[in-house]
Amino acid sequence: MSYCPQRLVRSRFSAGLPSWDPHHRWYRPRTGFQAARASSNDASNSRSLSSYPADTVVTHPTLSPSLNDRRLTNVSWEGSSSVSDLKSSFHPVQTSRHDQIRSQSLKAPQDQSPHSEYEPDASTPGSRRQAFGRFRGVLSIPERSNIFGSGSAPKIVYNTKVVINGHLRDRQRVLHPSAVALEKRIRYQSLFYSGAEVRKWRLACSDLYRSKFYEREMENELLITLKLDSVEQILLEKLKIDSLGRFREAWESLSKREKSTRWHKLSLWVLKICPEYALDFLLVTNQSKDRPVFVMVADAFLFLDAFHYDTLKRWRNGTHTYQSVLQSALRPSNWPILFLPQKGVRLFVKRASREAVHHAFQLVRQRKIHTKAETYLCFMWRFTELGDIDKALEALGNVQRMRQADFQLDSDAVKRHCCKLLTLDSVQEGPNGRNFYILPKLLEKGVRPDRDMMNIVLSNAFKTGDEQLGLDMLEYMRANGYEWDSYTYLTLLNDAVARGDRNRVTSLVREVEPDEELQKNPWIASKIFHAHFVFTGKHINPDDDPDAVFYSMLDMYNQLHDITPLKELSILPPEYTPPPGGDNTPPTPIALYLMIATYLRCRKRVSIGQRLYSIFRSLVLQGHPAIAPLAATDHTYNEFLIAFRDNPRGLRPAMRVVEDMLQSSAQNETDLDPRGSPASHARPSARTWTILMSCFVYNNQPHAAEKVKEMMAEHNIDYNKATWNVMVSNHANRQNVSDLAKTIKSMEDEGFIVDSYNMKSLRYLRDPERLWVALEELDKMAEPPINKLASSKSSARVTEKKKSDQLLDRGLRRLSEKMKPKL
Region Disordered: which residues (predicted)? Predict the structure, then answer.
């Protein structure tokens, strides 16, 4: 029997919602199979709104028109888009896809279990057309509602194509009673809408999206003539004044019928007129026991995320945020089981928290929710972004099992996601020795690496620090015919620069020069420029001429970029004219950073650094298109701190740099750059605080250095190895053995060991034996944690600590022996 009350006209199955008025839909054949796009995560990649049914065909072995319903037998229906995949939502470029819903009087194969979720289509296209012709391509209203009735298990045929034995087949699903019952319960909790009303609303939302995207006038009649009555005006005012109080009370006082009518108009109004109140509206209405239709809520969030995310991501209402409202309104427990709008789900996966995404993935598997390969790829992308390798591989396994056309393991979409996942790969010890963790698992699944994947494997091999492993992978690529591209050369350049192999860099540059395409590649050009800085400007030899070093960098810069920003920074005089033949492209942030760093290292006067910083800071606050992006990271600020470190007069300017960073980052929530985007200002990083601390240590200001340590604690900055090194050096210079011992002990507790840099600092101790005694006393006072012995890492930590103690012991004894003759 149908779940729809007898007093109501039977609902259209495509909408899955009760209706008060008999709205019929006309069947229109689809124009042809169009391949689905790869996993996409923003609304601008959606397709045009389709007013036709979803990608499904509903078959039932026992359906036949009754005599009482003969007048409705040949009535055609126009499908509700409430069940259509959000892939057919709104897209400004691509054409819409025509989907169908049709009935077949075909019994499910006897050898197929009704508990199975998806099955390949065993029938031939010809037999489907014959059955389709007998029923005139449609189901009557009573027939369509019987999909939830008793009898043999019905079967759903989706228009999504799967590959079975090398042939394209329609994806099928035999309905299980538990899935039908859960679908009924979820839909019963939704507001009443006819399919025509849902379609009308979505068309209006689509036109609103298009008008915003193309910056044109709206064409939809509903949007143009949209007006609120007196009751809706009152609701809107309460929404603006007190959404969680007065508006919630007024909304809950409405009947289910009234909520349906009011939500239909108010939702379009807030999206069109006042999107700043859209989250308040969606929050309250989706917390009601009568929720809006999922596909309509998903469309609303797709619009907001596409055009108002930069503003709404800073929205707050009590404890509610944009993310929390989206997670509540699109929560997985309300996802339809049989016909799930995929675009809304992908938006949820993109914006939700780690816990919410894991819960959604688990629920999709438990409930066997209708999910496409594109959506599973989106899960894979999100898990990769979260660093959850095993879950990403599990999502890839689901894509493999679905066998969806255009999303096989050798498809471009799947390989792009595998490339992204491989960036997390690392070498681990296993029963068969050291090996990569992710790559073998991809090979076991049947993924065949292409050049892009091999480039990432090559990069991972060099990142291990084992040069021979990287060279072996390079030889494997050459032996198997993988042609080197820009990514390959960039990986080789990165490795050579990291190892300080200047000859290797020179050799690679000679290989790149004959290829004009590689030579003009911005990434390779930037890396070659960076390599020149590392070998010339980063560490200037005392015998080198600073002017020659600077102009050497300037000559290479002239070949790549426009010099106007350098003149605006007063690095170059206004009358300077570059030599002919260079490019005039806008400089990248990396190129500008390298020139500023070179200039500061070649001009070491504090006054020059102060003047340059004042100009730099002014241009950043003005939103200079080339210079303002430098404030998004701490690199340029750190260079100014290094320039101020060598002179006591640079301590005040150094403090000003950090204060400016703190002030600008605190204003990120309210400031906008000239393009209307939130201004990006980096907070002081652990490296920034460490350099500031070293400024005071190098200039014999230990108390100021301790003050910096307190400020780091206030801003929740974790110490890195460089921070510990500076703190050890500070206490050693002051001959503060007690604090030095505590610092070394704390450093070891954090997992860092005493290295050669620390031993250099300990040479300044007048009495090294006191440090050894102090460390022994601290070891006796410290009680080992009870659970430390049970830790899987205990053996490694003990071995590491023994090595640290031995190194420290040898160093202290050598210092003691050297000090004895002097005493």
Answer: 37-69, 81-129, 786-823
